[in-house]
Design a protein that fits this description.
alpha+beta, OB fold (Dihydrolipoamide Acetyltransferase, E2P), 3 domains, 12 helices, elongated, meiosis, MEIOB-like N-terminal domain-containing protein, DNA-binding
């Protein structure tokens, strides 16, 4: 019968009257499936279901967002038995070209699910129910050139860069924008390992992955991915190389990190490496951002803050309260002047005093006589492309406690010790001991820049930017009781 013949339609051709058609499109987003249980027909709502009947009546739903041109997108909601939904969910990923066979068409104005699905251009939505014996969504096996045209749509931006918001604006708003969604243009700074957590309510094991995102305005904001599909996708992302245009990223205030983080909403769509002119600037900026703790400490001590302007006196306990205790604020950095005693200053022991880094990209080189670990850096192939610098770990103590693991690096250490690295490595053990005792166990005015642990860093960083023997009269006048 003619009514049984299916014709191929595009998203732009779909209308209220469209029936018996096939849509060929690429998947640009997919939701996590949701499952619920019902009752077999003829059974009472209060009759007890066995495991077998629950399996037979369990149903699920999930949504695919499809695209077939630069302009046209549409949502397709799939309802069916649990097994059917699991099959579709495990079969199709973002980037697959699919055929949707004979879906139902409805106006998206009346589709309740559209409020919880990605924003699309089509005024219609598609629905599939597993009432037929054949699969209604299958992989499209077309010519290579046609598939390549569909794949190219993955990089076409859904919104323009001027419709995105800088990460710094979101972070600055703090918990005030909790629950809202924004468009972002970012570069991946780091991809952390997948982790598992046990959900208390269901006692099930759930996996998630944290990814650090950055842009030209902010050095790093954490985004958490719970969907198995997104977790698998993030494994392909390369730090400082993969860029993302994220539509409708949800903002969440994270109580553990005490800062703003991001999450994937049911409306979120992510475009990897979108074709926009701003990418070059974004990637070039990413190369300049310190990513290792030692790079951050070196950056802090290189004159970003004038030590003479650090005059807020704090005790060790007050610094600890600002980093871990009751005085934690949303800003992740502050400065302090602490009148304390150096209780660890191991210039003549086994502690690391001097480190090496690449002269080209300033990446830390950990192994002796090794070359830069970055393959794209000239220092990876050039011999003797390393420079030595002071990298000293210091503990400071006062009457309220001890601040461990403070870092004194580079020019700051040279100023304090009154010698450069070349001179220091030539000193005898006796000379190093004599140099150490100029400061050890003596009251000093220690000026620090503190960066508390955050979604980007797992530990607090205490960077000493100035250290000098304190005048007893000054200590007596300014030293705080608490």
């Amino acid at each position: 019968m003619a009514s049984e013949i299916s014709t191929v339609k595009t998203i732009a051709q779909i209308s209220d009257e469209t029936r018996n058609f096939i849509l060929v499109a690429i998947v640009i987003a997919k939701s996590d499936p949701r499952f619920f249980s019902g009752h077999l027909k003829g059974r009472g709502a209060f009759e007890t279901d066995t495991a077998e009947t629950l399996h037979q009546t369990a149903r699920g739903v999930f949504t695919l967002t499809l695209r077939d041109s630069d302009r046209d997108t549409i949502n397709c909601t799939v309802w069916g038995k649990a097994d059917t939904i699991v099959h579709y969910d495990s079969t199709f990923e973002i980037g697959d070209v699919v055929e949707v066979n004979r879906p139902q068409v409805a106006s998206s104005m009346f589709g309740r699910s559209e409020h919880y699905s990605p924003t699309v251009t089509s005024p219609y939505c598609l629905t599939i129910n597993d009432q037929t014996q054949v699969e209604q969504i299958t992989r499209h096996e077309g010519p290579a050139q046609e598939l390549q045209q569909f794949k190219a749509l993955l990089k076409v931006p859904l919104v323009q860069p001027n419709e995105t918001i800088p990460l710094a604006d979101i972070v600055a708003s703090g918990s005030g924008c909790n629950g809202e969604t924004f468009n972002l243009l970012v570069v991946v700074r780091a991809v952390r390992a997948k982790r598992d957590i046990r959900v208390a309510r269901s006692n099930q094991i759930k996996s998630f992955r944290e990814v650090i995102l950055m842009d030209c305005s902010h050095a790093g904001v954490l985004m958490k991915f719970w969907s198995d599909s997104y977790i698998r996708w993030t494994e392909q992302w390369l730090p400082l190389k993969t860029t993302l245009l994220i539509v409708d990223a949800r903002v969440e205030f994270n109580a553990y990190y005490k800062t703003i983080c991001l999450a994937v909403d049911r409306k979120t769509i992510i475009t990897q490496d979108p074709i926009v002119p701003q990418l070059t600037k974004l990637l070039n900026h990413a190369k300049t951002i310190p990513t290792q703790d030692i790079d951050v400490v070196c950056s802090l001590s290189s004159g970003s803050v004038d030590p003479s302007t650090i005059n807020t006196v704090m005790t060790v306990q007050q610094i600890l309260d600002r980093t871990e205790g009751d005085l934690v604020q949303e800003e992740d950095q502050f400065t302090a002047c602490c009148y304390a005693v150096l209780t660890r200053f191991d210039l003549d022991g086994s502690s690391r005093i001097v480190s090496e880094r690449c002269v080209h990209c300033r990446t830390l080189v950990r192994e002796p006589n090794a070359r830069c670990p970055k393959y794209e850096c000239p220092g990876h192939t050039a011999a003797n492309a390393r420079e030595r610098f002071f990298d000293i770990t210091v503990d400071i103590s006062d009457h309220t406690g001890t601040l461990t693991g403070c870092r004194m690096v580079g020019q700051v250490a040279e100023t304090v010790l009154n010698c450069d690295v070349t001179t220091f490595v030539r000193l005898t053990d006796a000379q190093r001991t004599q140099l150490k005792w100029k400061y050890l166990l003596d009251r000093c005015a220690v000026r620090l820049i503190v960066k508390r642990r955050s979604a980007v860093r797992f530990q607090n960083l205490y960077s000493i930017v100035d250290c000098a023997i304190a005048d007893p009269a000054e200590v007596e006048a300014k030293l705080k009781v608490y």
